[in-house]
Amino acid sequence: MYHSSVIDSSQRTTRPPGRPASATREQVIEHARKAFLAGERVDIQAIAGQLGLSRASIYRWFGSRDGVLGSVLAGEFEALLSRADARRRSTGARRILDVLYRVNRWMTDNEPFRRYFENEPLSGLRILTASDGPVQPLIVRTVRELIVRATEEDGYRPPLEPGLLAYAIVRLGEAFLYNDNVAGIRGDIDRLHEVQAALLGIPEAIKQ
């Protein structure tokens, strides 16, 4: 990284406009995340101005505004699942079920998430559930990694291949959590809990 004290004026003028050395993809996500958590609209033009970037530069990284929002939402899910797994006390299939229940509860109770869905219902549903979008593939991968950890660390024997099981869990979660008729949050986590327990091979689910 160059410091300003050692860069002459000619070097400064040759730097590509809209891409200062201090601006990164991660900073774009962090600015968008702050707006999301504050219940504000994620304004790509405003973020670009704050970071000294052009909007085109951000779109080169993320493809679109949906890509930025998807990165924020996927990151929140991944961080929450990791925290829930670190705090769990159960093992095996019940470990997976308990972690998923905490994550599902967050998805329905979290105020910024609910406000986002209220403000942008149609785009929110599309960003979260599109199989080729920025969120669902990462969530499937994150759940698969949880299943693999339970297999390797706890001796859990999943009834399906971990990738297929993770995909089924995520798609079922979408059906129970989101209402596509009004593009809102249905939040039927208790029934979802029962179905996920059956998928994981737990005959009687007890919420923790």
TrEMBL record:
<dbReference type="InterPro" id="IPR009057">
    <property type="entry name" value="Homeodomain-like_sf"/>
</dbReference>
<dbReference type="InterPro" id="IPR041485">
    <property type="entry name" value="TetR_C_36"/>
</dbReference>
<feature type="DNA-binding region" description="H-T-H motif">
    <location>
        <begin position="43"/>
        <end position="62"/>
    </location>
</feature>
<dbReference type="InterPro" id="IPR001647">
    <property type="entry name" value="HTH_TetR"/>
</dbReference>
<dbReference type="InterPro" id="IPR050109">
    <property type="entry name" value="HTH-type_TetR-like_transc_reg"/>
</dbReference>
<dbReference type="Pfam" id="PF18598">
    <property type="entry name" value="TetR_C_36"/>
</dbReference>
<feature type="region of interest" description="Disordered">
    <location>
        <begin position="1"/>
        <end position="25"/>
    </location>
</feature>
<keyword id="KW-0238">DNA-binding</keyword>
<keyword id="KW-0805">Transcription regulation</keyword>
<feature type="compositionally biased region" description="Polar residues">
    <location>
        <begin position="1"/>
        <end position="14"/>
    </location>
</feature>
<protein>
    <submittedName>
        <fullName>TetR/AcrR family transcriptional regulator</fullName>
    </submittedName>
</protein>
<keyword id="KW-0804">Transcription</keyword>
<feature type="domain" description="HTH tetR-type">
    <location>
        <begin position="22"/>
        <end position="80"/>
    </location>
</feature>
